[in-house]
Amino acid sequence: MRTVTTSFFDGPIARREMLQRMFALGAGFFGLKTLGAAPLKRGVYYFSGWATPRPEFGCLAGRESPAEFPWQPIRTTKPGYPLVNRVPRKGFYDERSSAIAKAQIADMERAGFDFAVYQVHWSHEMALPQKLPLTQSKRCDPLTMAHAARNHAALAPRLGFCISFFDVMSAEDQVAADYWKTRIGRDGWKATDYLNDVTAFIKRLEKEFFSAPGYLRIDGRPVLVLGTPEHWERTAKRFGLDMPSVLRKLRSSSRDGLYLVATQTPPDTYRKMISWGFEAVTEYLHHGNGSGYDDVMATHRWRWREGVSLVNGTRARYWVPLSAGYDARAWSIATPVE
């Protein structure tokens, strides 16, 4: 899990005053409120995929399930990787377990969180299996790494939840380029197919999660957090589409519409996100240049100022991000902390 809390505001502005200034401007997340109108709500990101072995492995194209045993990087000693062979407090758990879900939800509730944001993945090619060649015998559920979110929905705890989605096949690299080249060239995808894929994704989320007890809603609409949406624009352009039309399709695919939040998008794109149709912006995490706490806090303050400026100048909401980074060793990254 990547934790977002309201525990560290510091510097020349007192902590309480900082909270008041930010939330009085309609900021939210981690908290979601306008000061004086509703209680502050605090959320926490849940990075999914810790199943052993991961059932999606070998089933999907690209990098959507890159490792069969995701715990392995911190269990194996590698040259240049510090503090390896570490054991998580709950052991090398399998997030498909209902007992693990109960324990994690209890931890989040004790910490004072109001909702969890579960990251899922979506396999585009498996959403439209009729477009796959007959020689490709492998067929999989397109909604992947959703085990923790399913457990949460089934347990129906006091803790609320919503879904986030980072489309890893919209990255700016050759893997993504080759992936969509195959969809368009070999499988014959057109713009209508991509929009049908978008519809299938939302319909699936609606069926499994949007009506579940405790699913986070704002103004009656289910919340969906979309990661790095500026990367989505690259995919949309491959089909001659623009992002406002893709977001309209997302909304129209849900019975109650959607409350869309853009995350992990740099401040210079905030206004573009709102012009596309997002209601709010936030961050997945951000951090300084690795020189310590003061550097991290300076980065936070800069991002917060940009968020407050957005709220002042538009109808948007800013979900205040407070995560200073994460331990990167589980991703086989030599740098101990990002």
Structural class: alpha/beta
Put simply, the count of helices is 10
Span of the ends, CA to CA: 14 Å
Largest sheet: 9 strands, mixed
Helix content: 25-40%
Coarse shape: globular
Task: Give me the count of strands.
Answer: 9
Q: Uncertain regions: pLDDT < 50 for 5+ in a row?
A: 2-29, 31-36
β-strand amount: 5-15%
Please tell me the overall pLDDT: 81
Compute the CA-based radius of gyration. 20 Å
| Secondary-structure element order, N to C | HEHEHEHEHHEEHHEHEHE
Folded structure, characterized:
α2 (98-110) packs across α4 and α6 (191-210) packs across α8 (243-252). Strands 1, 2, 3, 4, 5, 6, 7, 8 and 9 form a 9-stranded mixed sheet that branches. 35% of the residues lie in helices and 12% in strands. The longest helix is centred in the C-terminal third of the chain and has 21 residues, at 293-313. The chain has 10 helices and 9 strands. It is globular. α9 links the parallel β7 and β8. It has 338 residues and is of the alpha/beta class.
